[in-house]
Design a protein that fits this description.
alpha+beta; seven-stranded antiparallel β-sheet; Immunoglobulin-like
């Protein structure tokens, strides 16, 4: 608190407001709503004033600062404790989720003024955008979509648990690192599992800048069913205050209440910000993004052979989870119409352990995050195999069409190509395309052939590889794997190390590791003979500086073949 010479004390509250205590007047509530029409955004600022004395007239000043620095200022008198200021933005810079455009932000300053004295002010960071849940009736039933600025999005993300230090403080650097990792893995949404506690303002500010739509959950305590009226009212007031603190953020998209069934009178009587937020309840499973988990079976029952040691078991634990999540995500993205999106669980781990999270306790990428970088990619090619038949699907989440060449091969476990093909592909924006079914019944006539043949595909657009993978016609634990004879070539290219991975025979789930902290541009990928894989490690991603020689010494590689006994 700061003391001034005229016996007035200036203070700042949790809203970032500044007020002078001499006057019994200030900002009680500020609501910001947007109306988009014909390329013009009408901003309406509704202000409620707290005032115990009406001796002097009050007014509300609003200053809007555009992303380019230009400013607009309007003022309205306070009438019966309220005021409304309307600003029209004729050339709005729209805020877009990650992967669809930029995230321009406007600064809105609201002040209550008496004469020439500014009594209190609040600053808001806003983005101009529309967001809604659109329901339509299709042949298969009701279809639900998340529409942002008129674009039908497929929500892709994970569940985030707020990070705190042992003494209860927010670890800001770690939080920013986790959110940046989400954007780099092609997320456009993040679900906050607050457990009754909301993150700090810095979290929402960071999501605003990165373009991550927030699904904010709030958990009702288990004992709420037996609460008295006073306890319920206090709890509802707390939730309302938290909502008022964060509702103006453009990243704030979905609000939901866990354990809503514990109260019969529905105490969540909060009003949305003029349609800016999508209000949802967890009881309506059909309207929310699908939350995906996986089972815990490792070994023969989980589709893998038994691990030969602890390191191999940790490798398989991460791999089995990533595979399970990938199958769910690819199936959902193939059936894009009717699904609002999909989220994996969880994103982060609060303490060091053998974890199933996407990022481990130190923030390093786990197998699931590398898989997510591929199955959340804007352009995805996924294979659906049924016995001896394979169908390829190309999903395009971009707004613009995608054209390229889709190459496929039927090859043996030692790299011999049996059949191959090339198909030109053109997929419209925000749609999926299905390749005619490929039937290999003649080549897979025997059980032994199914254990030695694989299907490989890759999709290139303008010389860039967008998607690639291999498919086996039997469980991977029954496939006749041979030593892939992996070879690494490392080169220092200035700000990064370039690694070229090649294999003599088919290699499944190739993992690169370093002794210290690290991150690779890609990992846990398949390598087809004759098709080397190039991976980069930026020097800024390393926890400590390494020379080229130190990097080569600490670099290790393994594949699925190296994980089980007898390899």
């Amino acid at each position: 608190m700061k003391q001034f010479g005229d016996n007035r004390t200036r203070f700042s509250d949790a809203w970032g407001s500044e007020a002078l205590c001499q006057w019994d007047a200030g900002l009680h509530d500020v609501r910001i709503s947007q109306h988009h029409r014909d390329g013009v955004v009408r901003l309406t600022v509704d202000v409620v004033i707290k005032c115990q004395s009406s001796t002097y007239p009050l007014s509300v000043d609003v200053v809007l600062t555009h992303p380019d620095g230009t400013m607009e200022a309007l003022s309205q008198p306070v009438v019966e404790g309220t005021a409304q200021v309307v600003i029209e933005v004729t050339q709005p810079a729209l805020w877009w989720p990650a992967g669809y455009g930029n995230q321009p932000l406007y600064q809105l300053e609201t002040s209550v003024v008496r004469g020439r004295e500014r009594l209190e002010r609040r600053n808001f960071t806003i983005g101009l955008r529309t967001i809604e849940i659109r329901r339509t009736t299709e042949e298969f039933g009701e279809a639900i979509a998340c529409v942002v600025n008129g674009i039908d999005l497929f929500l892709k993300g994970a569940t985030y648990y707020p990070e705190r230090t042992p003494d209860g403080r927010i670890n800001s650097a770690r939080m920013r690192h986790l959110l940046q990792a989400c954007v780099e893995a092609n997320f456009n949404m993040i679900r906050v599992a607050s457990g009754g506690e909301f993150p700090e303002d810095e979290f929402y500010d960071c999501c605003d800048k990165l373009g991550l739509i927030i699904w904010q959950t709030f958990t009702a305590p288990k004992q709420a069913a037996v609460w008295g009226d006073d306890a319920k009212n206090r709890w509802v007031t707390t939730v309302q205050n938290e909502f008022l603190r964060i509702f103006h953020h453009p990243s704030f998209g979905i609000w939901s209440l866990d354990r809503a069934r514990v109260t019969s009178d529905n105490p969540m009587k909060l009003r949305p910000s003029s349609g800016d937020c999508v209000w949802k309840r967890l009881g309506l499973d059909s309207t929310r993004p699908k939350l995906v988990r996986s089972n815990r079976r490792i070994g023969l029952e989980g589709g893998f052979r038994f691990a030969k040691d602890l390191a191999a078991r940790m490798y398989l634990v991460e791999l089995q989870r990533a595979k399970a999540i990938r199958s769910e995500v690819e199936a959902a993205r193939r059936q894009r119409i009717g699904s609002i999106g999909i989220l994996d669980w969880p994103l982060n781990q609060r303490w060091p352990s053998i974890t199933w999270s996407s990022l481990d306790g130190s923030g390093q990428w786990q197998a699931l995050h590398y898989f997510a970088q591929r199955f959340y990619a804007p352009v995805l090619v996924s294979a659906c195999s049924n016995d001896t038949r394979v169908t390829l699907h190309v999903t395009n989440d971009r707004v613009t069409p995608v054209e390229g060449l889709l190459d496929w091969q039927l090859l043996s476990h030692v790299g011999e190509v049996i059949l191959s093909g090339r198909v030109p592909v053109c997929v419209a924006g925000l749609s999926t395309w299905q390749l005619p079914e490929l039937d290999f019944s003649e080549e897979l006539i025997s059980a032994s052939s199914r254990r030695t043949l694989s299907f490989a595909y890759q999709f290139e657009c303008n010389g860039a590889l967008l998607s690639a993978d291999t498919v086996q016609f039997c469980p991977v634990n029954r496939y006749n794997w041979v030593d892939p004879a992996l070879r690494l070539q490392v080169r220092d290219v200035g700000d990064a190390f370039e690694i070229v991975v090649s294999a003599k025979h088919l290699a499944k789930y190739v993992e690169l590791r370093l002794a210290g902290g690290y991150r690779f541009s890609d990992n846990l990928f398949d390598v087809v003979p004759g098709q080397p894989k190039t991976v980069y490690v930026r020097k800024s991603w390393l926890f400590e500086p390494l020379s080229a020689l130190q990097f080569v010494v600490q670099l290790h590689v393994m594949s699925f073949y190296d994980s089980y006994a007898g390899a």
